[in-house]
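Proteins fold reproducibly. Look at a concrete instance:
___
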Amino acid sequence: MAVRYSKGARFERELAKMLLERGFLVVRAAGSGVYRTAPDLLAFKGHEQYAFECKAWSGDRLSLRPEQFNLLREWESRSGLSVYVAWRVARAGWLFIRPGEFNEN
């Protein structure tokens, strides 16, 4: 668990740095990756407001547990923020996926 957490935290910090360099204010959710009550990062720049759930998955597919998917949809509905799953793909960079773009399996 500690290795997965440190990998995830490292990628959260990487995305936060990228957003800061683009002029966003960034908040990293306390306990992200542990309590699952909020997306990992919130980013604000003028009228642009985003919530990001960061994933660092080495496979060629990304999946979300139903409860995590529902949490992201609820955040989007209740906060008015644009919510994205930010997937860090090895040697390819970042993919940003809206929760509604996932297929149910």
